[in-house]
Design a protein that fits this description.
By secondary structure, the protein is of the alpha+beta class. The protein has helices spanning about 15-25, 45, 65-75, 90-100, 110-115, 120-130, 145-155, 180-195, 250-270, 300-305, 310-320, 395-410, 420-430, 430-435, 440-445, and strands at about 10, 30-35, 50-55, 80, 105, 160-165, 170-175, 200-205, 210-220, 225-235, 240-245, 275-280, 285-290, 335-340, 355, 360, 365-370, 380, 385-395, 410-415. Strand 12 (about 275-280) and strand 13 (about 285-290) form a beta hairpin. Helix 4 packs antiparallel against helix 5 (about 110-115) and helix 12 (about 395-410) packs antiparallel against helix 13. The termini are far apart. About 50% of the residues are buried.
């Protein structure tokens, strides 16, 4: 394995940097950690073979500073860069720069990152490949009059979405014709402010969908394999909080049919490396909404049910290795659930950076904790608030819930408030236990409705 790459620079921080480090170490590949001055004592820095400070605390001056990251790679002799998720992971210009400097970007091609980063282009590509879509505009909605015509055709409520959007920004619902002008204008303004692009498109607003995503891997030899679905419907303000693999509402036949359509389409595109296609699912129908051209936060639940190391596979693919297995070799065993533990007040959801005075992770059969926390670590206020992921795996969903309940009770993060108590409430809810929830469920749950 040591011959794949001589050294990999990890252009990220926190638990995902640590996760990538672990895969590299098991493969015999040295790693370089980059860090801001705020992360000098971070666990991923402590455990790396080498580390380079790339700037001050603000992400724009460090983890988003492409020149500093590339310089760190060149100075340390790294021949590949793994971007993790977030930051520069879906930045096509950065991927171009990595390759222009003779390094390997461990991820999809810049062209595919660029294509899927524009939601309009992504939908057009998927439509051409036979992947089902949410009814809506064929492309950008250029005027309010066009928006009115499309809304009249597909019916209210409708959703106005930023073409370059993500994380719920530039997304507005118009429930009636009277709401449309304000929704269209606000979505464009938010998109312009957040992404420097005010292009928007329109979709039918589904009132009770699940958020289902499909994990894929594609090598450079034309092989594409899927690893089943994840149910990511438990969201607050379009941010995922808890994920499951597989979904409580998807059966094997549906998984196989969707997987066959997606893998065939991506093979036609010549896609490479890891990717996740996201769908809304309602009334037995899937509708594509976007593709993430990177590793997902929630990838561990897939790893648990499929016994695959997705990061290891990303590295192998980037080095030109074939997958070495076919779809029929992939086995789905048991059920896995992941809780994202955020440094936030569990009632107000305000961020709670500060000193972790004590830390105890749960353990036992089928329990995994991905976290870079330790006692004495000071959670900085500059980055995403997620500080840990608790993942459990068991033969059945109800056994997984029982294991999750036990693990949450064992988990101790002292010194800062976290969302652990919220997860304990969710696990005890009869509707969650029954798997009876949609993407709107958690908003009502946290508000007490």
């Amino acid at each position: 394995m040591a011959g794949l790459f001589q050294k990999i620079l990890i252009a990220n921080r926190g638990e995902i940097a640590l996760r990538i480090q672990r895969a590299c170490r098991e493969m015999g590949i040295p790693t370089v950690a980059v860090h801001s001055t705020a992360d000098a004592q971070a666990m991923h820095v402590r455990l790396a073979d080498e580390s380079v400070c790339i700037g001050p605390p603000q992400a724009r001056d460090s983890y988003l500073h492409t020149a500093a990251i590339l310089s760190a790679a060149i100075v340390t002799g790294a021949d590949a860069i793994h971007p993790g998720y977030g930051f520069l992971s879906e930045n096509a210009e950065f991927a171009d720069m990595v390759e222009a400097h003779g390094l390997t970007f461990i991820g999809p091609s810049p062209d595919h990152i660029r294509m899927m980063g524009n939601k309009i282009a992504a939908k057009a590509a998927m439509a051409s490949l036979g992947v089902p879509l949410v009814p809506g505009s064929d492309g950008e909605v250029l005027s309010l009059d066009s928006a009115r015509e499309i809304a009249a055709e597909i019916g209210y409520p409708v959703l106005i979405k930023a073409a370059a959007g993500g994380g719920g920004r530039g997304m507005k619902v118009a429930r009636t014709a009277g709401d449309l002008e304000e929704a269209w204008g606000t979505a464009r303004a938010e998109s312009r402010a957040a992404f420097g692009n005010d292009a928007v498109y329109m979709e039918k607003y589904l009132d009770r969908p699940r958020h289902i995503e499909l994990q894929v891997l594609a090598d450079t030899h034309g092989n594409v394999v899927h690893f089943g679905e994840r149910d990511c419907s438990l969201q607050r303000r379009h941010q995922k909080l808890l994920e499951e693999a597989g979904s409580p509402v998807i059966n094997e036949a549906q998984r196989a049919a969707l997987g066959a359509t997606v893998t065939s389409g991506l093979a036609q595109l010549g896609y490479r490396n890891a990717g996740t296609l996201e769908f809304l699912y309602q009334d037995g129908q899937f509708a594509f909404i976007e593709m993430n051209t990177r590793l997902q936060v929630e990838h561990p639940v897939t790893e648990m049910v499929c016994s695959v190391d997705l990061v290891r596979e990303q590295i192998r693919i980037a080095a030109g290795e074939p997958l070495g297995y076919t779809q029929s070799d992939v086995r789905f065993t048991g059920h896995a659930i992941e809780c994202r533990i955020n440094a936030e007040d569990p009632e107000t959801f305000m961020p709670t950076p500060g000193m972790v005075t004590a830390f105890h992770a749960p353990g036992g059969l089928g329990v995994r904790v991905d976290s870079a926390l330790y006692a004495g670590y000071k959670v900085p206020p500059y980055y995403d608030s997620m500080v840990a992921k608790l993942i459990v795996h068991a033969p059945t969903r109800m056994e997984a819930i029982a294991r999750l309940r036990r693990s949450l009770a064992e988990f101790a993060i002292v010194g800062i408030k976290t969302t652990l108590p919220l997860h304990q409430r969710i696990v005890e809810d009869p509707q969650f236990q029954a798997g009876d929830y949609t993407i709107h469920w958690l908003e009502r749950f946290v508000s007490g409705q």
